[in-house]
Amino acid sequence: MNMVKPAGLIFGIVFVFFSQTILAADSPMDQLKSTIDSVITTLKDKSLDSEARRSKIRVLINDRFYFRAMSQRTLSRYWKKATPQQQKQFVSLFSKLLENTYVGRLEAYTNEKVVYLRERNKNAKRAVVYTQIETGSTEIPINYKLARKNDKWLIYDVVIEEVSLISNFRSSYAEIIKKEGMDGLLSKMEKKLAEVPVKTTNAS
Amino acid sequence: MIIIDKNKRNILLFIAAIPLLYSIQGHAYQSPEGIMVAVSNPQTKDIKADDDFTVDDEDEIKVNDPFESFNRAIFKFNDELYTGVMKPIAIGYRAVIPEKARSSIKNFFTNLLAPVRVVNAALQLKGQDATNELVRFGVNTIIGFAGFLDVARDDFNIKIKKEDFGQTLGHYGMGSGPYLVLPLWGPSSVRDGFGLLVDGVYLDPVAYLDKTEDYLIVRFIDIETTISLDKDTYEAIKKDSLDPYIFIRNAYTQQRTGAVNK
Asked: Is the per-residue pLDDT at A23 higher than 70?
């Protein structure tokens, strides 16, 4: 009779404990969605000035993009040849370039509908989330490749209409390294970042 | 794109076929690096040390581009035409015609190209895709006001599947051949350029317009509509990448490889 109560209590505690762990380990899709939603909300937030908006977005992106992994994939065999100093510099420059690219594109599509189609866990450490941007006249498939680091799923590649961004960067960077070496690439990247951003026309 | 008299079509096709035949035979255009290598290894290399991403887990794409300097010249020409003429017109068009209307015009042109998709899906023996495209064409033409509304997509959830003759050739095992940048058109390859010509001459209804001026006007509206709806993709690539030519070459190759395998 009295046995029922402790059993129920234990069950309750165990249940609460488990549900919390489940909540903590959101699926790759949930985690990705929360980041993209926050970025879009921030982009739309008229109360922020452009500087504040940008730094808020930077925090969100740094939290979800696996820049070190992206850098390694981009440099591929050249990563191991680079000195630790060069590696460090590359990660820092590359993350800024990627951030610019990604935010620039998101800005253009802020008012379009993002649909989260499905996710596929390749194994415990890798997953792909399939999304789609739907505009009035077309659908653009965007797949995010994610790697798990502790409880977090981090983006290590973005594939837009079959085109892997990392593969694209890799091929152009490899050509530059071949011709001008790692330092040549690094100085080119620095120069690119220093350029005044070209103002794009307001697409609609 | 291509403007030709109907009776000159076959001659043109024949001329265009010559480099294609060469590329089928192989070797003719092969650079020392060899033709495109795509190594796919999706499952086996998935699990790796957590922090090492230098070894890739999927396709490494190499592009065969023996005509690079020539291609870069055309690329520059296209860039100037786009930036100096086509884009400014598209921006004006954007300002005057609302997006909804331009989307409808785009739908109309997409629907018009249904023969390209139907025939090429059929040639690849993709029965379901061919049927879908046929149904899409019927539905959109009849209840979608001649294709201005994509009723098939919006109300029946039948989605477009792009097929073209380049994909058909690829489906039957033909490699892309050397990369080509075509004047006015942009990135292509020997195979896809030939495919474009076949589709554009035989399967594109617009090519059956009698007058060259009509053809030009229709094509012009089509292209400007597409540019106006695009969200400055090309400008973004130019702004962000260290070498836009290589970026686009790689993107095109990846996209076509994906399209052929679908």
From this structure: no
